[in-house]
Structure formats: structure tokens, C-alpha cells
Amino acid sequence: MDPKTKSVNPPQSPKPSSIDPEEVARYTALADRWWDESGPFWPLHTLNRLRTDYICDRLCAHLGRDPSAPHPLAGLRLLDIGCGGGILSESMARLGAQVHGIDVTEKNIAVARLHARHSGLDIHYEVVPVETLAARKARYDVVLNMEVVEHVADLPGFMAACNSLVEPNGISFIATLNRTPVSLIVAIVGAEYILRWLPRGTHQWRRFPKPAELEALLMADGLQVVERTGVRVNPFNRSMHLTGYLGVNYMLITTRTRPCGGS
């Protein structure tokens, strides 16, 4: 279905258990800084350049498209879950995708809409949880679930809703942090307390999912992981690169092999 299509009386549901009010409050307070590349979201801007190229290259390889074309993702219905201020959504829209960006923080969506308008980009932004989209039976060719799962309160419920949004033959990307001793040292002690690259409290280590945990939730809904990659951060020049090591940041690519909930 077209992500912009809304039913006259969309299904109503209680507040999803995956939403953590403390996380919403944290990102509401930071919302005005989303597009400040020297502010608290600079790591996300740096990561976005890496992940945009990665997503485009892998999608084009999967679909037999030319990644050097002016709009290589033209015609693809793409969902950006937890879009924040629209950093990744805008990158995907510039590549030609029909982007639906969603977030549960109203101020984030307000920032994203304003920035897209000033950038001349047609992006459909909405304050809505993934559980509501799942209830609408929305479907997308591409689902981006980037740097979100480590912030949700109910990972199985959240992933079940996300998984249901992937079309048959669709593809999804998931990026998060691994729950390892190394990630505790690097992503929290190092990034938040020593280097102060991120505000303290940005992450909770116990919520970092291990790849095997995510893969089990994906497989249960008919999604198969076809590629895994890690992300390495150079603390000296603040650059980021792909790596085979998954112990800190990692990304998964999945494709649908059977209907959600099928056998």
C-alpha cells in the first residue's frame, strides 16, 4: 500500500509497550540540535554518510540497479523507523525513494518536517509507533530500523511489528549495538563519559541486543539475515568504517523468505 494512504477510521490501539517515556523525553530535549553537525548528534551525521552509501549499494545489488544513477532508489516505498530529525530520511529521499519517516517524539517530527520543507524534499513524516502501522497492515519495499532497537522497552513486541511491515521480497536493514564487554567500554564509558561524544544516559547497555537475539526474532517472522557487518569508529579523527568485527556496532540486512507468521 502507499505509505501516504490512510483509512478513514484507522484502528485504535493502546499505547505500545515498546515506547519508553524516558527515551521520548530525552530526545524531545535534544530535538532542536538534530541538524547541528558539531552538536550532540555529530556521531549520527558521520554514521549517516557511511550507512547511506551502504544501504544504497546493497539495495541496488539486491534489485539489479545502478548505484551511480541519479536516483537509484526511485519508486521504492521506504519506511524509516525512529527517523528523528530526518537525517537518514532525507538521504534516502535524495536517492529517489518514496520515504515515510515515523517517530514517537512529536518535536522530532516537527523538526524533520521543517527541514525537509526548507530542503525542497517531499517526505511523509508521521508521529506514530510501528505497532499502529502494523495494525493498519502497511507494507514497504524497504524498512530501515537504524539505531532504534537499543532504545525500546519491549524488543520482541517492537520487532514483531517492524517485521510485519516488510513486503514479500522486501528487504530490511537493522543497525544497533552489541551487548559485549567491549561495547560497554567503547560505547558507554568511552563515548559518553570519557570522550563525551554523546550525552550521558544516551544508551543503556542491558538493552543492547546480541546479533543472535535479533536474528531469532527475525527468523520467527520469516526474515532471513543475508549480510552482517560491523562499524568501526576511529577516535582520533572521528571517522567511521565498515569492519568484520561485530562486537560494538553492527548492521544486519534481511530479506523476507515467507509471510510473517507463516510456517
TrEMBL record:
Catalytic activity, reaction form: a 3-(all-trans-polyprenyl)benzene-1,2-diol + S-adenosyl-L-methionine = a 2-methoxy-6-(all-trans-polyprenyl)phenol + S-adenosyl-L-homocysteine + H(+); a 3-demethylubiquinol + S-adenosyl-L-methionine = a ubiquinol + S-adenosyl-L-homocysteine + H(+)
Broad enzyme group: transferase
SUPFAM superfamilies: S-adenosyl-L-methionine-dependent methyltransferases
UniProt superkingdom: Bacteria
Known EC number: 2.1.1.222, 2.1.1.64
GO biological process, one term: methylation
Pathway: Cofactor biosynthesis; ubiquinone biosynthesis
Annotated segments matching region Disordered: 1-21
Gene3D superfamilies the UniProt entry points to: Vaccinia Virus protein VP39 (3.40.50.150)
Membrane spanning residue stretches: none
GO MF terms, alphabetically ordered: 2-polyprenyl-6-hydroxyphenol methylase activity; 3-demethylubiquinol 3-O-methyltransferase activity; polyprenyldihydroxybenzoate methyltransferase activity
Keyword Ribonucleoprotein included in the entry's annotation: no
UniProt-annotated binding residues for S-adenosyl-L-methionine: 51, 82, 103, 146
CDD domains, per database record: AdoMet_MTases
Swiss-Prot/TrEMBL keywords: Methyltransferase, S-adenosyl-L-methionine, Transferase, Ubiquinone, Ubiquinone biosynthesis
Composition-biased stretches (Polar residues): 1-10
Entry function: O-methyltransferase that catalyzes the 2 O-methylation steps in the ubiquinone biosynthetic pathway.
UniProt family annotation: Belongs to the methyltransferase superfamily. UbiG/COQ3 family.
Name this protein carries in UniProt: Ubiquinone biosynthesis O-methyltransferase
Organism the protein comes from: Ectothiorhodospira magna
